[in-house]
Design a protein that fits this description.
Shape: globular
Largest sheet: 3 strands, antiparallel
CATH topology: Arc Repressor Mutant, subunit A
Distance between the termini: 19 Å
Order of helices and strands: EEEEHHHE
Number of domains: 1
CATH architecture: Orthogonal Bundle
Radius of gyration: 13 Å
Strand order of the largest sheet: 2-3-4
């Protein structure tokens, strides 16, 4: 269950993921025509945001738990990595946040 003060993340509809053979990927923003490269962790997060991963959903707790399980990292490390990645996605305009405040302050 999502707490009321936690945002839900979702990819913008105009952003496409292309997975590469080595587990990495590239995002294409169809509006700006810019590409963004993703490492394996970034691909896993993006797939989860898109509902493609086994732990689909854009809630912070879901994403943090997925990172802990998939990459064998501590919850604190997963949360810190998620914060940084989401801040970068927001800055690039690739995701939307609804409710709560995280990653750059302000609601989505």
């Amino acid at each position: 269950m999502t707490r009321l003060d936690e945002p839900t993340l979702r990819p913008r509809a105009n952003v496409l993921l292309t997975e590469l053979g080595d587990g990495t990927g590239a995002l294409l923003d169809l509006d700006t025509k810019f590409y963004f490269t993703l490492n394996r962790t970034g691909v896993a997060i993006w797939q989860s945001l898109s509902g493609e991963g086994s732990a689909g959903g854009g809630e912070w707790a879901t994403l943090t738990g997925m990172l802990c399980r998939r990459f064998a990292v501590a919850p604190e490390q997963a949360a810190a990595d998620l914060e940084a990645f989401v801040a970068a996605l927001r800055e690039a305009g690739l995701i939307e946040l609804s409710g709560g405040e995280r990653a750059g302050g302000g609601p989505g």
